[in-house]
Amino acid sequence: MRILIVHQNFPGQFGYFAKAWSARQGWDVRALGRDTAPGLPGFDKLIRYRSARAVHRQQHPYLRQMEAATLHGQATARVMSSLRRGGFVPDAILAHPGWGETLYAKDIFPEARLVHYCEWYYNAQGADLGFDPEFPLSLDGRARIRMWNAQHLLNLVQCDVAVSPTQWQRSRFPEILQPKIMLRHEGIDARALKPDSDARFATPGGALLKAGDSVITYVARNLEPYRGFHVFMRALARIQKAHPTCHAIIVGADGVSYGSKPEDAPNWREKMLREVQLDPARTHFTGRLPRADYLRVLQVSAAHVYLSYPFVLSWSALEAMAVGALVIGSDTAPVREVIRNGVNGRLVDFFDISRITTAVLDALRDPISQQPLRRQARNDAQNYDREAGLARYDELIGALPALRLSADIVPVSVITSAAWQNEQKIGVVWSFTSVDRVRACGPIACCGWVIVSMASSLPA
Fold first, then answer.
1. What does the alpha-carbon distance between residue 30 and residue 39 come to, in Å, rounded to a whole number?
2. d(CA 360, CA 354)
3. What 8-state DSSP symbol labels residue 307?
């Protein structure tokens, strides 16, 4: 089978798939990414592209993102044309289309199955934008987002099938197009991730912290409001005053992944350090870490704080669960899809600094009582193992023709008794808003999948 993986920052979400597919006999897997893409060790078929020029400075602000997408699409179309002339015609294209790379893919490869990873569709209300009253959304911001969504609509209309990793992310797209979007999480290395009672982490300042210590952890790609960094810092100041021996390990860079930089400081870390008073001997900023060090941070954690706007779900939240950390998460979508308050973690109001402080202090002062939650979190994380993700994506790209591709296919492992109780959630991952009852119909298909009927009039 011939596969083309397209991601501006390759490998992005697709690293495990690229390695697994390229290791299969007879498969020809290639990738396309921007010239700044990090690449994937051991994978040598990444083709890098560069836009012909930058967006014009005089371009209307509402259209800058669309022009950038057009330029990216043009550059990748040229590479795809070259691949076709060289004899490479993919059976399937798996792409994150968020930056425009596949706008013209069907013009080059009309016979290829185009699978789009639908990560996010912006809404001016009810999600991330306007969620935080500290950062109100302007009319210009609303208009700019509406034009940006035009690109996402083009992507969704022209692909053969689309996929979102959480029900929340899928639900943000226009309802009329949601039936085209399958619910499939790509997965994490859940089987390999585990607690380590002997874990140690040496901070940049030389402090050696170990599992069992009063360690608070916070992880984000970049330290910024979208991931609640400003709220966490305010809570941490209170926590340190109430608990004189706790330490905090804060992992993340000073850039911006989402949103904007602060107007009055070089980055959000410096801005918040000006606002709150923290003990520098017990506050450890690490920047970004190699993966092994990052995992040790999670393994020594006594309380892992994961705050997020109603936005996309981070892998770090699932990985913290997989190592058995106690996750104190914000009661926002899609965090509540994976964290169940009092069952496998704690949920707190995103803005409630007092409740966040109390939840962390309770975890530090009584770690024994948190053990059942930590064990359940680890168990629940296994539903997101990347081997299951690979099977789901095999189906999406058409590698499993025996399976019927539709929104009513769910993994057997995630069907729980909730489906028989007239609830709208199946397990911890799959959710269908129009289902009143779910009934198994017919034999179980191969690879652990089962076909279920979805209709409001099914008999009990």
1. 12
2. 10
3. -
Q: Where in the chain is the domain with CATH 3.40.50.2000?
A: 200-380
Among candidate residues 49, 67, 50, the one with its CA nearest the CA of residue 58: 67
Domain 2-159 fold is: Rossmann fold (3.40.50)
Question: Residue 88 contacts by C-beta under 8 Å, 6 or more apart in sequence?
Answer: 2, 4, 28, 30
User: DSSP letters along 336-398, please?
Assistant: HHH--BTTTBEEE-TT-HHHHHHHHHHHHH-GGGGHHHHHHHHHHHGGGBHHHHHHHHHHHTT
Structure tokens at 275: 């606002």
In CATH, what class is 200-380?
alpha beta
Q: How far apart are CA 312 and CA 214, in angstroms?
A: 29
pLDDT tens string 314-372? 999 999 999 999 999 999 999 999 999 999 999 999 999 999 999 999 999 999 999 99
Stated pTM of the model? 0.85
- Cα dist from 30 to 86, 142, 221, 281, whole Å: 13, 37, 27, 48
The encoded tokens of residue 2 equal: 């011939």
- Model pLDDT for residues 114-143, shown as the tens digit of each residue: 999 999 999 888 898 889 999 988 899 889
User: How long a stretch of residues is the chain?
Assistant: 460
Distant-in-sequence, close-in-space partners of 7: CB < 8 Å, separation ≥ 6: 13, 14, 31, 32, 33, 37, 95, 96, 101
| Of 155, 2, 26, 7, nearest in space to 92 by CA | 2
Query: In the block, which residue shows the tokens 């530090």?
Result: 364
List the one residue out of 428, 239, 233 whose CA is nearest residue 344. 428
* Peptide bond connecting 334 to the previous residue in cis, omega within 30 degrees of 0: yes
